């Protein structure tokens, strides 16, 4: 074992002892280790050529981290490979200079400033590696952190995420990648589904194929192929959940982190195929389910396919299915699998941001001209449109019983909130994130090691421009920038963290990478982040307030987010007929 490896293990052991005694995440020791990496990186400068199974690549050093960007991990899914499982990329012999991100996958809806710009790229299956140790002769293999980005399964790209802090400060190998999304990534159609290959969830198959690339190649980058943590935010968390659920992903990873997306909400196959058939008719390929129809679909230009996935400012949703219960990749609705225990059992971190919903309602104001504060009338109209009994998760039959609109309006009176915007944001947060996540915690706690949290920094920088009367608080996506430096969406404005926020960022990176190392965010022991035990387990509060990292109970969380109310509306129940 190298001197550096011994130093790292000694410092981590000492940090673990301090954590076990309740002294927090022992960040000063972590910083000392980061400084000790410098000699290795100087020595590694000549070792940035790595021989992958597919061919040689050469990266570059950036602030003490070796980066390898834009490595193809699969053949381009174009032509006859469109709407098929990913295939191996042909070998190359010349050195691939991995110094720039590959093209983002085709997308048209930008989710405000979250993603984009819109493009029609189908040749987009590229992977990126950030590592503090590229010495192939090194005997220590580092934990791997495998990131799946969010974007509602319709947009997003890996090049928005700088993995250097997680790699450098946590001494881990960080992997990001692109995957097919919207109609290219999630489409069911009888003509395609009956061709004899895995179907529908092509974006999840891309996730799994990238994990297989990691299994084959990551050791050459200093990573341990037998210690892989999958993690993601929003739709990326749901992708991560899909790996936990999918029997096809068994053995490809060892731990999982769900950030703001605990339960994959899936569309039943019959509904997804109806959407796919409607898309084929609209695109001019007819309503049949034969080989000619499949050929017609694959002959459509990428731009034409994207034209049915929405616009840059809105996703019409008519043909989009998202995750699909296809019977093989995702065998059953998520809740059914979790309740039965039929999933890949690994240690899990699960959590949310305190004010998730503010991210979604900002889009309403952002696209108004002129922009004006949201009104109670807009809130009431929204409640009537969603909770009148006409909508259910994943396109399933109506989920809400008669009287739900009145009950929701009574539960969220304007008098209880400073503004209609925060009234609306609280509803979105509780119904679509917090209470679903708590329900998930109750199911998982007895089956796997589980750690839960709520991100509560209401001062988090906001990458949208200032808007009249809008308070962002701890909004959906706000926590990303605490792990991925200067994250600001695809087109937003970056804002550096202040000193207090940097301190919180350091604590969270330490916890996440401890989890990657040991399956325990404390490193070892049960402090400061206790393992969750149902029914009234403890959450970690992630905040910059004087109390710093603290805990609160599931009952307190439930009361804050009205979960007793939402539990009665059956919004999490199985969609199995």
From TrEMBL:
Gene3D superfamilies: alpha/beta hydrolase (3.40.50.1820). Keywords: Hydrolase, Signal. Residues 1-44 form the signal peptide. InterPro entries: AB_hydrolase_fold, CarbesteraseB, Carboxylesterase_B_AS, Carboxylesterase_B_CS, Type-B_Carboxylest/Lipase. One of its GO terms (molecular function) is hydrolase activity. Its EC number is 3.1.1.-. Coiled coil: none annotated. It is an enzyme of class 3 (hydrolase). The keyword Transmembrane does not apply. Residues 49-566 form the Carboxylesterase type B domain. PANTHER family: CARBOXYLESTERASE. Belongs to the type-B carboxylesterase/lipase family. This is Carboxylic ester hydrolase.
